[in-house]
Amino acid sequence: MTTLKLDNIKACVFDAYGTMFDVNAAAREEQAALGDKWEEIANNWRMKQLQYTWLRSLQKRHADFWQVTGDALDFALATSNIDDAALRDRLMQLYLKLSAYPEVKSMLEALKAANIKTAILSNGTQKMLDAAVENANIGALLDGSYSIEDVGIYKPDPSVYQMAVDRLGVSPSEISFQSSNAWDAYAAKAFGFNVIWCNRFGQADERLPGTPDAQITDLSALPPIVGA
User: Fold this and answer.
1) DSSP string, 2-57
2) How far apart are CA 147 and CA 27, in angstroms?
3) Total domains in the fold of the chain
4) 38 and 122 belong to one structural domain
5) Where in the sequence is the domain holding 41, given as residue range(s)?
6) Could you report the per-residue pLDDT of 59-105, keeping only the tens digit for each?
7) Which EC number(s) does the record attach to this protein (predicted)?
8) What is the enclosing helix (H) or strand (E) of 194?
9) End of a domain among 95, 114, 129?
């Protein structure tokens, strides 16, 4: 993948969890309670959270992301032989206040200054997204925050990506989509977006349709965006 200059872009759309917000922040905050298991729990929590979205979509047994997140946490805690209802509740509440990565706010400010529309497109419920956006103090920098609950199926179903097209009133080719999740980045490219894979965690390339246009390590490294 090569660095590129994005021309004729009217909107930058971002995945939320892992891209703008640190999904390990909740478990990290409870290191005192989780001990040296905190990282294992964070990884299992995230892995199972994603697996449940895909499996529920395939089974056509939808449950919202808050329930899925709780179910995944229960699995992660049980895997580490932890049975603590109060700790479980604290972790869930912390998930509503995940910290934004440090470059997120300044990056959004730069896009707004360039008159580029900005939005979040996420598996999260609207309540979860609103809480994360408020905690990061970035609401004024976003033109929208879109939850898959409006279509009732999780990424990478194409109807999710279509939401951004419909809500922002632009064509797929006028959108630059950013995600740290490789499967999401590849699927968004296959849908028709320009895609920047924010590969924060040094993942290998996927063997899927839709190779992203470029790869960066954090959102401060977005290539130049040129509006239409």
Assistant:
1) ----EEEE-EEEE--BTTTB-TTHHHHHTHHHHGGGHHHHHHHHHHHHHHHHHHHH
2) 24
3) 2
4) no
5) 25-95
6) 999 999 999 999 999 999 999 999 999 999 999 999 999 999 999 99
7) 3.8.1.2
8) strand 194-198
9) 95
Residue numbers annotated as active site = 15
* CATH number for the domain harbouring residue 221: 3.40.50.1000
Residues with Cβ within 8 Å of 64's Cβ and at least 6 positions away in sequence, in order, are 125, 149
DSSP letters, 48-82, are HHHHHHHHHHHHT----HHHHHHHHHHHHHHHTT-
> 110 with 169, same domain?
yes
For residue 107, the 8-state DSSP code is H
Quote the longest CA-to-CA distance of the chain.
54
How far apart (Å, rounded) are the C-alpha atoms in residues 199 and 180? 5
In whole angstroms, how far apart are CA 76 and each of 14, 38, 56, 123? 27, 10, 18, 20
Tokens of 77: 């805690």
Strand partners, 215: 197
* Rounded Cα–Cα distance for residues 163 and 191 (Å): 12
Q: What is the pTM of this model?
A: 0.95
